[in-house]
Amino acid sequence: MRCRYACGSAEHELGRRAFLRQSGRGVAGMGLAGLVSGLGGMVTGTPAVADAMRRGGKQILNIFLHGGVSQLETWDPKPNTDTGGPFRTIATTVPGLHLCELLPCTARQMHRLAVVRSLDTKNGDHARGVVEMTTGRKQMPGADFPHLGAVSAKALLPDSFSLPAHILIRSSPGKRNVESEFHKAAYLGPRFASMAIYDCKPPQLATGPTSSADGNLDQLRNDLRRSLNQRFAGRRRTADTEAYNFTFDQARDLLAQSDVFRIERESMADQERYGGSEFGRHCLLARRLLEHGVPYVQVNHADYDTHHENFDFHIEQLGEFDQPFARLVEDLAERGLLETTVVCVMSEFGRTPKINKTYGRDHWGTAWSVVMGGAGVQPAAVIGRTNANGTQVTDREVDHGHIFHTILRAVGVDSGGEFQVGGRSFPIADPARKPIEELLA
Known about the structure:
Blueprint: H1 16-24, H2 29-38, H3 47-55, E1 59-65, E2 89-91, E3 98-100, H4 104-107, E4 113-119, H5 126-135, H6 148-156, E5 166-170, E6 195-198, H7 212-236, H8 239-255, H9 268-273, H10 278-291, E7 296-301, H11 310-334, E8 341-346, E9 350-351, E10 363-364, E11 368-374, E12 382-383, E13 385-386, E14 393-395, H12 400-410, E15 418-421, E16 424-427
Parallel strand pairs: 1-7, 1-8, 4-12, 5-6, 5-7
Antiparallel strand pairs: 2-3, 4-11, 8-11, 9-10, 13-14, 15-16
C-alpha cells in the first residue's frame, strides 16, 4: 500500500525541470552534479577517523518523516478520547512515558531519547514546513537560509576530510520525491550543500580507472588540468572557478572511498537485523556514514500525508520505521557514537486531532512532537505538554527555531554566534529564538 497524497501539493509532484535539475545539474550528470553541489570538507573514511570523531568530533543524524507523521499515532497518543483513534499505548523504558503501540521497538530505546511534545509552528503547508523545520527560520519572500545540514557541515567539518559533509539518503527521484530541493546551502556556498544518495547506491562516479594504462592516462590528464588551472587562476581567479576546482578534486578523492557507500560491505547478520525494507537499508547506510565521520546525515522516509485512512497507513509506515530506527539508536549507543551524535526525528508538521470523514487526519502545525537524543541531549526527558485530546499546547510551547538552536547547541555549536562569509556576518540561527535549555544535558 502506498499513500496517494490527497492534498495534491506541488512538492509531492516532480516536474520535468525539477527532475533535470536533480539529474543533470552542472557539469556531467547526476553523479558529478551531486558532488559539485554538495561536497564539503576533506576526511578519510578510516577507523582512525571514526576514533577521532568519537574522541571529540560531533555529528548529527536527522530522520525526516515526510508528509507529516501523526503525533497521536507516535509520540503523544491520546487513547480513549474523541481524537485518540483506535490504538492503545505501551510503556517505554522511561517510567511514566507511553508511546503508541505502533512503536514497540522504539519504546525500548526511549531511555536514550527525549520527546518534545509542545511544538506550535503555526503552519500547515508542506513546502513551508520542510523549509522552516530544517532552517529554523520563518520562510519569507526574498530570504534564503541554509539547511541544517549545510550549517552543520560548516560548523562541524574536521580540518581534513575527503567525504561529503552533508549527505541526504533517500529513495530514487520520482513523483513526490523532491526533498533534495530543500537542502540548500544558501549564502554558505555550494561546498556545504547536500549530496544525495539514492536507494543506497554509491555515487555514479565512484569508479576509477580499469587498468594501469587507464590510470596513467588519467594521471596525465589531471596533471594537464592542474597546470592549466594554475595558469588560468593567475590571471582570472573567480569564486566560481575556485568552487569548481575544489569539488572536482574532491570528486577524484571520493573515487578511492566508494566502499563507504556500500552496505553490502556490512555483515549479512547486520543487513538482516535492519530488515529488507528501503528504510532499513537507508538506516544501515546512515550508521556506516556516521562511523566514517560524516558530520551530517539525513534519512528521509515518506508517505505520511494521510488525509485518507490514516490508521491503516500509519500501521504500514511505522511498521517500516520502528525496527530499523530502534536498531540504529541501539547500535550507535553500543559503538560509542551516540555520545557524540545528536539524533532527531522530525516532520514538517503533525496531523489534526480531529479525524475527518475519510478516516484521515489533515495538516496540523498547532500541537505536535519531535524526538531527539544522543550527544548533549538529556536522555529520557519529556518536554512540554498538550491538553487531554491534543488540540493545543498547555506547557512549554516551542517552534522550529527552538529545535534548530537545540540541535546545534547539543553538538557544541554556539547557536547564538555568527558565520563570517565574504566579509559579512550571518547569524547561525534565528536570533529571536534560543535553545530548549532543559533538554540539554
